[in-house]
Write a structure and sequence with these properties.
single chain; alpha/beta; Rossmann fold; 2 domains; nine-stranded mixed beta sheet; 9 strands; 17% strand; disordered C terminus
């Protein structure tokens, strides 16, 4: 148990409102924007840099290729579009335009606050601008946003979710557990969050879920999740799979955690095969991938964030 965990646990017992207020400020904080990792620099440097307007806020976009098929990549919380470099290199083709972005307050996009609705709106704007979306690939928080965008109108031939959560409730549960909040303090945190960030939303906990419209059965889904993910339990992938009415494949990895999974060669190949396959032929059976984390050469991205990161709901 860390010192922060002990302090917050004790505070949430004697003064739940104060603990919830402190937790809320951490929950919505973006921290310092992540820089481009050296291993991603070459691919990132080849991108065509653009922008889009999100209700008066500029969002930096990146594009590779000029083909007629569009692939949209949606990064996670406290991440950036360049983190997709390994997958971009694998998916590049004369037939494709691959697009990523930096959400507000992430990477090179200015700002200090963003929400899942911002993410979903960006996906919607990019899909409308480029058209012919063959796949949307999301990681972590980006999975939730991708599902929300598709459920609310964005068209895609297939979906890929990596280390994603089944709903906003999981984010609250994980963050509260990391800080050691009591049940009362956790409820107070959730109430603050909904009241301050989404005052016009009657029930964010039911709207922000990784589910499609119940009538949608045509979109094949690939879920990739590590069995030992310390931030988002692999059970979340199982919940997403159970709620999906179309073809679904669940790939479970070992030893890749929450972030290294984005660069694992076998994971990248699995995603490439799924994206390349005709929609009707996308695999629909569960499988498993394993990887020995002990072979990490030191040439990977940082392992996991600190035990008390900012939240991911905002």
């Amino acid at each position: 148990m860390t010192a922060i965990h002990r302090i917050m646990r004790g505070l949430s017992r004697v003064a739940p409102p104060l603990a919830a207020e402190i937790a809320y400020r951490q929950f919505v904080s973006l921290g310092s924007p992540e820089r481009v990792h050296p291993l991603d620099a070459a691919t990132h440097g080849r991108a065509r840099i653009g922008s889009l307007d999100l209700n008066g806020r500029p969002v930096v976009t990146y594009a590779w290729g000029t083909g007629p098929e569009t692939i949209l990549l949606v990064h996670g919380w406290r991440s950036r579009g360049s983190r997709w470099a390994t997958l971009i290199a694998a998916l590049e083709s004369p037939e494709r335009t691959i697009i990523s972005f930096d959400a507000p307050g992430h990477g090179d996009s200015p700002g200090d606050r963003t929400t899942v609705l911002d993410y979903a709106a960006i996906v919607r704007l990019l899909a409308a601008r480029n058209g012919n979306v063959q796949a949307i690939v999301g990681h972590s928080f980006g999975v939730l946003a991708s599902f929300l965008a598709v459920r609310e109108g964005v068209s895609t031939a297939r979906l890929v979710g990596i280390s994603g959560m089944a709903g906003a409730t999981q984010l609250l549960e994980t963050f509260s557990a990391q800080l050691g909040l009591t049940e009362r303090a956790k409820r107070a945190l959730g109430e603050r969050f909904q009241r301050r960030v989404f005052p016009n939303e009657p029930d964010i906990w039911h709207r922000f879920v990784a589910e499609l419209d119940p009538t949608e059965t045509r979109i094949p889904l690939l879920l990739v999740h590590d069995a030992g993910d310390p931030l988002v339990p692999v059970s979340q992938a199982e919940l997403i799979a159970e709620a999906h009415l179309g073809a679904v494949t669940v790939e479970r990895t070992q030893g890749l955690g929450h972030h290294r999974i984005l660069n694992d060669p076998r994971v990248i190949e699995t995603i490439r095969e799924f994206v390349d396959a005709p929609p009707r032929l996308a695999p629909a059976s569960a499988a498993s991938i394993s990887s020995r984390a002990a072979q990490d050469s030191g040439q990977t991205h940082p392992f996991e964030p600190s035990p008390s990161p900012g939240g991911q709901l905002a």
